[in-house]
Design goal:
globular, alpha/beta, about 35% helix, about 475 residues, ten-stranded mixed β-sheet, six-stranded parallel β-sheet, binds 6-O-phosphono-beta-D-glucopyranose
Length: about 475
């Protein structure tokens, strides 16, 4: 059965994600000879378009977004595997059209990966029609579905969506995507922790003072304001990307990398997060947000959040985790900082005067992907010390090759049937359970005022205060102009 052809059906093919990410990723996999034999990509959306028009559109996407890997010859080999079917898959007759078109294109049995790159309100109807049209049965090849974020808007809606999906697909067929898990550097967190013996013994409350996770962006909400205004930073970034990074840093080692054993550990971790106190959150909006087209007048949507949370287990008891993310900030950076405890006493003269400086380990997810460890060293010729860094840069150690885009890895895994880097039904709900109380608290407008920040800065002063009261400050090591 594994020799038969495979079809990737992309719902929402006229959308941005298909052109910027999905087809460039499939093109790069083709270039590297990593696509399954006989791969077809069938784009589906309501717009009228011929196969050739679709191919042209995708070519310009690959030229622009594949990471400079476009060449005419490879494209000429790849383009004939792209097809387009105009159909409204959210409606029964649209799905019927697609079923007929697939039967013609496939010329026999084929495996199928359905990719839902559509507005979230279409997830349930598309899945339902796939089921009703008999397009999910695995008698003629495997059937899998990839579902984009946002997966629900809180734990209740996520649970309801899981139930709707499970009426049609078995959980082993469902791949909920979080592209942060496909980033090389995010995957490397587990390698770093568990393929080395020297870090894990100190990876706990005895040695770690606190952990910071920053995912900052320079872009504002731009043309996505319509979506963003109903979503906000907690739903857009925290429930998924930041909590996934948290799970990789804080989870216990699974017995092996079996997808379920790995995800069991993440669920266990999420279930150990103590309900977040409202006074440990900062809710902010950049100045000028309300002027963007698509934003409701007087919108209270947060474009920035900072949270302090605790994990109630033996490893992390009492260790604060600070998480922040926002739009329209000074730099685009994703970084995790592990700050270790200070030495119990200091006999040297170090800066700041007579106070020991804690070691800091920075896991730089992007840009300048790498790992940095800061430690104290003696200044030559003087008796005092200062902080220096041990550095690892992907660009230096791995030959300067650009890192593969997250979607490449994730599409390949979905095609190969490995769901380790996708979120399981219970995992996505457990993550929502962490965010729900904050969303509820914030919805009670007066419970926590929305503060503003100036675009192009590192965010509101309240986020600095959140750490300041604990005697800490935010750190960024993977760019050098943080302060
Ligand atoms: C997406 C969010 O999931 O992640 C966007 O919807 C955000 O708002 C994006 O800009 C950030 O991803 P990356 O890979 O650019 O850090």
């Amino acid at each position: 059965m594994s020799q038969q052809a495979t079809t990737v059906v992309i719902f929402g093919a006229s959308g941005d994600l298909t052109r910027r990410k999905l087809v460039p990723a499939l093109y790069n996999l083709h270039l590297k000879n990593r696509t399954p034999a006989g791969l077809r990509v069938v784009g589906v959306s309501r717009s009228a378009m011929s196969h050739d028009e679709f191919r042209d559109r995708m070519r310009s996407g690959v030229e622009e977004f594949s990471g400079k890997t476009y060449n005419a010859e490879t494209w000429a080999g790849f383009a004939p595997s792209l097809f387009y079917v105009p159909a409204d898959a959210g409606k029964r007759d649209g799905m019927e059209t697609l079923r007929g078109a697939l039967a013609e294109l496939e010329e026999g049995a084929a495996h199928r990966l359905y990719y839902l790159s559509v507005a979230p309100f279409l997830y349930a109807p598309i899945v339902e029609h796939l089921g009703a049209m008999g397009m999910v049965a695995e008698s003629e090849g495997w059937r899998r579905v990839v579902i984009e974020k946002p997966f629900g808007t809180d734990s209740k809606t996520a649970h309801a969506l899981n139930e709707q999906i499970h009426h049609v697909f078995d959980e082993h067929q469902v791949y909920r995507i979080d592209h942060y898990l496909g980033k090389e550097t995010a995957q490397n967190i587990l390698f770093f922790r568990f393929a080395n013996a020297i870090f894990e013994p100190v990876w706990n409350r005895t040695h770690i003072d606190h952990v910071q996770i920053s995912v900052t962006e320079t872009v504002d909400v731009g043309h996505r304001a319509g979506y963003y205004d109903t979503s906000g930073v907690l739903r857009d970034m925290f429930q998924n990307h930041l909590l996934q990074l948290l799970s990789l840093v804080a989870m216990e080692p699974p017995p092996n990398l079996d997808a379920d054993l790995l995800r069991n550990e993440k669920v266990k971790l999420f279930n150990s997060v103590r309900p977040i106190a409202l006074h440990d959150t900062v809710r902010a909006q950049y100045q000028g947000y309300c002027d963007a087209e698509g934003v409701a007048d007087g919108s209270q949507t947060a474009t920035y959040a900072a949270l302090k949370l605790y994990i109630d287990n033996w490893r992390w008891q009492g260790v604060p985790f600070y998480l922040r993310s926002g739009k329209a900030l000074k730099e685009k950076v994703s970084e995790i900082v592990i700050q270790f405890r200070r030495p119990p006493m200091m006999m040297f003269d170090v800066a700041p005067a007579n106070r020991s400086v804690p070691n800091r380990l920075s896991l730089c997810i992007q840009p300048d992907e790498g790992i940095h460890l800061s430690f104290e060293a003696k200044v030559p010729g003087f008796s005092e010390g200062r902080s220096v860094e041990m550095d690892f840069h992907y660009s230096e150690d791995f030959g300067g090759q650009p890192l593969p885009d997250a979607y490449e890895r994730l599409l390949l895994d979905a095609l190969n049937g490995d769901p380790s880097l996708f979120t399981r039904a219970d995992e996505v709900e457990a993550a929502w359970h962490i965010i729900d109380p904050v969303l509820d608290g914030w919805a009670r407008g007066d419970a926590l005022p929305l503060v503003t920040y100036t675009p192009g800065t590192w965010g509101p002063v309240e986020a600095d205060n959140l750490l300041d009261t604990d005697g800490h400050r935010w750190h960024i090591a993977c760019i050098h102009n943080h302060d």
